Amino acid sequence: MALLEGQDRLTLDELNLATQAWTEQEYHRTVHSEIDSTPLAHYLAGPNVARACPDQSVLTGSFRIEVARRQRRSDGTASLAGTRFEIPSRYRHLEHINLRYARWDLSRVDLVDARTGAILCAVKPLDKSANANGQRRTLSAASVDLSPMAPKGMPALMTQLLADYAATGLPPAYLPVSEPGVGVGGCIDVGTEVQEAYS
Q1: What does the pLDDT look like over 12-37, one tens digit per residue?
Q2: Residue 119: which of 92, 139, 143, 148 has the closest Cα?
Q3: Which residue spans within 81-168 are E strands per DSSP?
Q4: What integer pLDDT is reported at residue 29 of this predicted model?
Q5: Are 186 and 179 spatial neighbours (Cβ–Cβ below 8 Å)?
Q6: pLDDT tens by residue, 105-122
Q7: DSSP state letter for 148
Q8: What's the rounded Cα separation, in Å, for the pair 60 and 137?
Q9: Which residues pair with 125 in a beta bridge?
Q10: Is the pLDDT score of 185 beyond 50?
Q11: What is the pTM (predicted TM-score) of this model?
Q12: Is 120 helix (H, G, I), strand (E, B) or coil?
């Protein structure tokens, strides 16, 4: 803040950029008496404890919840988040079933083994219009695809969040405030008002 005392009116964007520049070019490269080194050199000299990020499909399948449902014997379906899902005929003898899904993405719902947690198969929403035509076919275990369904891209919520963030066009080093008079185009005085803007 001492470096910005000569700036009469300081925007939040200017403060963020100045803070980033000072941190990267001054603070990280100045020798500290406590560690007798620069913070950057101290960090680089330490052990690498980073872990590789799992594949996107693994992450997509990990952030889901598992719920127990009672299977409706009359039509072999189970209700989930207000939608009925068809259970393959191979598992229609089960009174209680466990479903694994993400609240924000019902395009991937899996039937899982309650004891082992293993995925048995993917389940699909009940197609009422297709069932209304009266045409039926014989269901058998051999005719039902029980293989796990592969993930189909990023969940809709994360896609929307990434699109909204990219549309701002701002650098990713800080989060701008878009309120009039405080964020981009707005000016604030150096001092307590800057601290209030961050809080």
Answers
A1: 888 888 888 888 888 888 899 888 99
A2: 148
A3: 83-86, 96-102, 105-112, 119-125
A4: 86
A5: yes
A6: 888 899 999 889 899 999
A7: P
A8: 34
A9: 85
A10: no
A11: 0.41
A12: strand
Residue 80 β-bridge partners:
83
Element (DSSP H or E) covering residue 56: helix 56-62
Q: What torsion, rounded to 10 degrees, do the Cα atoms 143, 148, 149, 155 define?
A: 150
Q: Which amino acid is at 85?
A: F
Contact 177, 13 (CB under 8 A): no
Owner of token pair 């988040």: 81
Q: What is the CA radius of gyration of the chain?
A: 28
d(CA 149, CA 121): 7
Provide, rounded to the nearest whole percent, the portion of the chain with pLDDT above 90.
Answer: 13
Per-domain residue ranges for the chain? 56-130+138-152
Burial bucket for residue 97 (CB in 10 Å: 0-12, 13-18, 19+): buried
Q: Collapsing DSSP states into helix, strand and coil, what is residue 19?
A: helix
